[in-house]
Amino acid sequence: MLTINIITLFPELIEPYLERLPFSRAIEKGALEVNLIQLKNYAIDERGTVDGRPYGGGVGMLLRIEPVWQALESVYGAFDNPEKIQADLENTIIGLTPSGKTFTQKKAQELSKKSTITLICGRYEGMDARIKQHLTTENISIGNYVLSGGEIPALAIMEAVVRLLPEAIEKEEATLLESFSQGLDQKKEYPQFTRPETYKGLAVPEVLLSGHHEKIKKWQKDQINS
Ligand code: SAM
User: Fold this and answer.
1) Residue 209 belongs to a domain
2) What is the Å distance from ligand 1's center to 123 Cα?
3) What CATH number is associated with residue 118?
4) Which of 162, 180, 215 is the last residue of a domain?
5) Residues 123 and 23 in one domain
6) Domain for residue 178, yes or no?
7) pTM, full prediction
8) Are residues 44 and 118 in the same domain?
9) Do 58 and 151 belong to one domain?
10) What is the mean pLDDT of residues 129-155?
11) Could you tell me if residue 10 is inside a domain?
């Protein structure tokens, strides 16, 4: 059973996806629980403040450390020393940031074996660096570009992870032989075709219609190596 906690200012962006595959099946089968944690619930005042201006100047606002700390306490219990929470190998607390380590299929496989993952979604100009330095166990980027918030990165990571849970997809073997999987030596998938055999002069490679299992396997292998 995998529990994913998402600390966000916009849980409503994530909610609809949970009603669709692969999330819905994994939740229904009891293999996945997703907790959406509204950061505003841990605001520093009654006006709902969760952000502040950067020291030293700069455009935009940063998420403050106090609301994020308290949101984490709602998951892990009260803590005074963030080093303890980082040192506990059971904890996987991921800060979503363009400056993090680039997400890969290998990372998705690693995360799919965890029991609890907490994702912290930034917004505005990002988050106070102390969050990324002291409250997370790792910081992840989904690529070298900048989005407005961590919700789409959180969904991308969650979907890559959840579809690797055996309960989440109908045919488990589908994830064993796909791009970046161990089954394909972490390489990109070979081209695949379906009916019709020819469309407007565009033909399916003949070898795939030959019924010759060995030749087909060799062709597929040659394709991923080319
Ligand atoms: N000032 C930050 C910088 O230059 O790196 C960008 C902040 S971005 C506008 C706001 C939030 O969106 C970030 O804190 C992060 O949570 C999320 N975000 C944007 N792009 C991302 C990416 N490529 N990977 C992961 N998170 C991203």
Assistant:
1) yes
2) 7
3) 3.40.1280.10
4) 162
5) yes
6) no
7) 0.95
8) yes
9) yes
10) 98
11) yes
CA of 147 to the centre of ligand 1 (A): 6
Q: Is 90 exceeded by the pLDDT of residue 24? A: yes
Q: Residue 24 Cα, ligand 1 centroid: separation in angstroms?
A: 27
State the average pLDDT for the chain. Answer: 96
Q: Is 142 in the pocket of ligand 1 (CB under 6 A)?
A: yes
pLDDT in tens, 180-204: 988 888 999 999 999 999 999 999 9
Do the beta carbons of residue 140 and residue 122 sit within 8 Å?
no
Centroid of ligand 1 to alpha carbon of 155 (angstroms): 14
Instruction: Residue 194: give the domain boundaries.
Output: 190-225
Decide whether any atom of ligand 1 lies within 6 Å of the 95 Cβ: no
From 59, 93, 146, 148, the mutation candidate for ligand 1 (largest count of ligand atoms within 8 A of CB) is: 146
pLDDT digit string, tens, across residues 34-84 = 999 999 999 999 999 999 999 999 999 999 999 999 999 999 999 999 999
Nearest CA to ligand 1 atom 9: 148
